[in-house]
Every structure is written in C-alpha cells, then in structure tokens.
Design goal:
- The chain has about 475 residues and is an all-alpha fold.
- Helices cover about 75% and strands about 0% of the residues.
- A two-stranded antiparallel ribbon has the order 1-2.
- A hairpin with a 3-residue loop joins β1 (about 195-200) and β2 (about 205).
- α8 (about 160-190) runs antiparallel to α15 (about 295-330), α15 (about 295-330) packs antiparallel against α16 (about 335-350) and α15 runs parallel beside α17.
- The chain is globular, with a radius of gyration of 22 Å.
C-alpha cells in the first residue's frame, strides 16, 4: 500500500479528502493508557461472547427446530447462515461509513441491543419465515460489531501489539461458542422432560423457544457497558477531512482497495473460502455427533463446549505469539503467514475428522483442528487493520466482512447441506458431506491466501510511516 497508490486515486477522490500524503499522521496524541485499552478489550470481548452465544446456540437446537417446524437440512442451513447475513448485506456498508466518522462506541452499543432483542424474538417464532426474519435482525450484530470493534482497537494499540489484543478479544468469541454449547446442552437437558414452557405475559413455548428467549436478554447489560468505554483518538488518517468528520465516499474506498488489490483481494477471497470451510463444518458438528455416534444434545454441548474453552485459548495465544515472533524476525507478512500455517493444519484435520471410526478419535482430531484454527483469531483481523488508513477502516472492514460473513457464514452451512441433501441424499451421510466440503475448500483457500503473501508484506512495509 504505497503513497503512490493512494496518490493515484487523487483524481477520483474529493480534494477535501486527500489533503495530506499517506505518511502524514494527523493524531499526535499519546497512545491511550494500557488500563483504558485493556478495559475496552474486556468489554469488546463480552460483546463478542454475547454475539456468538446468541448465534451459536442455534446449532444445538437443530433437531427440535427441524421437528417442530418441519424443516429440511437446507432450510435450517438458511436460517443459521443466509438469514443471519441478510441484514449485513443491506446495511453493512452504511453502518461502516458511520463507524469511520462517528462515535463508534454508540454504534456498538446500539448493535448489541438490537441483536440481543432479536435473539429473544427468535424464541417467539412459530414457523420458518418468522424464524428467518428474526435471524435477519440478529445479523445486525455483525454489521455493527466488526467494523466498530476493530477500528477502535487499531487506535487503542500500536501495530506490533494489535495481534495480541485481538487474540485476547477473541477469548469472547471462544467463550461465546463454548458457553453456547455448554449452556444450550444443559438447558436442553433440564427441559428435556418439559415439552412446553410457560413464560409470564408471553404464553406457552416449546423448550427450544424458551432457550432462545432466555439467552438473548443478557446482551442488554453489555450494551450498557459499551457506553463506559473511552473513545480513542483516530490514527493513521490520510487527510485532514477525516479529522473533520468527513466520510470518504464508498466508491473511493473501493478504488483504494482496487489500487492495492494485490494485497487485499487474496486476503478477502482466501479468508472467505476458509470461512466456508470452518464455519460450514462447525455449525454441523453437533448434528454430526448426534447422527454418527448417537450422542444427545447435552453430551455434544458439554464435551465440545469444554473443548473450545480449554483448547482454543492456547491456540489463539500461540498464533499471536507466532505472529509477533515472525515480525521481530523482520517478516512483514507475519500476520498472513500465520493464516497460511493454520490452513495447512486445518485442511487435513477437517477432511479426516468426520471420517473417524470412533468418537474418541474424532475428538482427538477435533482438538488438533481447534488448536490450529484458533491461531488466526488475532493475526487475520490485525492483518487488515495495519494496511488500511483510519478513515477507511470501517468500510474496508465491511468489505472484508462481506466475504467473511456473506460468503463464509451465509453460504458455508448451505454448502454442506446441499452436499448432504443432493449428493449423498441422506442425513446419515452428513460426515461424508463435511469431509467432501473440506477437501474442496481447504486447498482452494490455501492457494489463494499464499498467492497474496508477498504483496501483503510490501503493503505492511509501506504503511509503517502512517503513525
């Protein structure tokens, strides 16, 4: 990402926007106090935990939802994936534009409140379309949460410390996924002998509806906590317009990304393919254990939830340590190099895991897979922030999240479901569908990400003069 590349856009940018070269740092304020920065990480992690708790709880509830609403695997995959990203497709970029110039903590707080209420609303659904519509509202979370959180973190921490901060932030991601499985499994067990639950003022609900209603409301507390986070001064601006609160037009942001496509495009596409692989399989893991080994939802929730909580944090910290070590050795592509290393391990594990002949072997492979998958949680998010000017970070993150969410989260579950329904044509063959999906997507993701390593390293080197 060179000065020349930015200046090449000057003819298309509003002169009020490009008034200073890339190397000009418009914020001379000292970095926020570590106590403020790490408090922000703590609150952001809580928000991320609630986010993934709300979205992840649905994976354990697939059997009763399918039974009560008479859904196919493809329909349930649309609810878990595509419905969730619909909101993002419609409003992701407008919200990101607000993130680039507005009060980011207010946007984050509003997003948490909306997705929490909509998760509770999922518990009121009585058919496919009602649940689909409620899940669209839950998608508001990612549209607000991703751009706002990462933009603020890049202003709280220097670039060399950003991967570690994002790795710690992702403890919330891991806790959300882990507790979604543990809490979901426990609640399902507690309600297993109670086919209907009565909630005052709302009426009588099936057990899965009560679970969704209960897990949605605590997010309102986290929404309030976000208002206590200090808004950091913006850094890495490429013009004084950003300091005056002017948003760069989205078409110019697209032009900037295209001018630096050798660094951005492989990252976007490769991580999108990787997310189809990882999330497309992950949402079907509980159903895999139930269909292949006859486990109950309670068993799946407790075992896989504890596995995430115990193993993934070590993987996340190892990945951030590896990135920092390679950075100290002078490798500017360290963040994306960690992603490549992760995919090299995750791909064969994802292929072999569903084919394991015993549940013990499946859990062993899943442990290694989870450890390696968690390497990227800090580096892949830091990779984008360090090569993007401040007043573009929200919108560029929105573009990244389009690939990450719309392609990965939106299409991932359906990709596996389509293989199950139309290739193997039997629910009992879910394991073969998961393995087939991994064999197709893993190598593709690896080749694409690897192809952009050299250009990404150059972009990092040329962005060092921003702050």
């Amino acid at each position: 990402m060179s000065t020349e590349n930015v200046e090449s856009l000057s003819g298309r940018l509003n002169p009020a926007v490009v008034e200073a070269p890339v190397g000009t740092a418009l914020s001379s304020a000292p970095w926020p106090h570590p106590r403020q920065a790490w408090y922000a990480v703590f609150v952001f992690a809580l928000a991320l935990m609630i986010n993934f708790l709300d979205r992840g709880i649905l994976t354990l509830l697939v059997p009763p939802i399918k039974r009560d609403l008479h859904l196919s695997d493809t329909q349930i995959s649309l609810i878990m994936g595509f419905a969730f990203v619909c909101f993002y497709m419609l409003l992701g970029v407008p919200i990101a534009r607000l993130v680039d110039v507005g009060r980011r903590k207010l946007i984050l707080s509003a997003g948490v409140a909306v997705w929490s209420v909509m998760t509770a609303t999922c518990g009121l659904a009585g058919n496919f379309w009602q649940l689909f519509a409620a899940r669209i509202g839950v998608g508001a979370g990612e549209a607000c949460n991703g751009p706002g959180t990462f933009s603020m973190l890049a202003d709280f921490f220097p670039k060399d410390k950003l991967p570690r901060a994002i790795a710690v932030l992702n403890f919330g991601y891991m806790a959300g996924n882990g507790f979604a499985l543990i809490i979901g499994g426990t609640v399902i067990y507690m309600l297993s002998n109670a086919p209907e639950v009565t909630i005052p003022l709302l009426g009588t609900f099936r057990s899965w509806q009560a679970v969704l209603f209960a897990v949605g409301l605590p997010g309102l507390v986290v929404s309030g906590l976000l208002l206590t986070v200090k808004e950091p001064p913006r850094r890495g601006l490429i013009g004084e317009a950003g300091a005056r609160g002017q948003s760069i037009p989205f078409r110019n942001v697209l032009g900037f990304v295209h001018a630096n496509r050798a660094a951005y495009y492989p990252m976007f596409l490769g991580l999108g393919l990787k997310t189809i692989l990882s999330f497309g399989s992950a949402v079907w893991v509980p159903s895999f254990y139930m269909r292949t080994f006859g486990w109950s939802a309670t068993q799946v929730g407790l075992v896989t939830g504890v596995l995430i909580l115990v193993v993934w944090p070590f993987g996340a910290m190892f990945g951030s340590w590896l990135s920092e070590r390679w950075t100290r050795l002078g490798r500017d592509d360290a963040n994306m190099r960690v992603v490549v290393a992760s995919v090299l391990v995750v791909t064969p594990c994802s292929i072999l895991f569903p084919l394991a002949p015993t549940v013990e072997l499946a859990l062993a492979v899943a442990t290694l897979n989870g450890f390696a998958a968690a390497w990227v949680l800090g580096p892949q998010n830091a990779a984008l922030q360090v090569i993007t000017p401040n007043q573009m970070r929200g919108q560029v993150t929105a573009i990244f999240l389009f690939f990450f969410n719309v392609i990965g989260f939106g299409f991932g579950p359906t990709f596996v479901a389509l293989i199950t329904d139309h290739v193997f044509k039997a629910e009992s063959q879910l394991n073969l569908a998961m393995s087939t999906a991994a064999a197709i997507l893993g190598p593709m993701a690896l080749v694409v990400i690897w192809s952009g390593l050299k250009s990404y390293g150059k972009a990092v080197e040329q962005a060092k003069g921003w702050n």
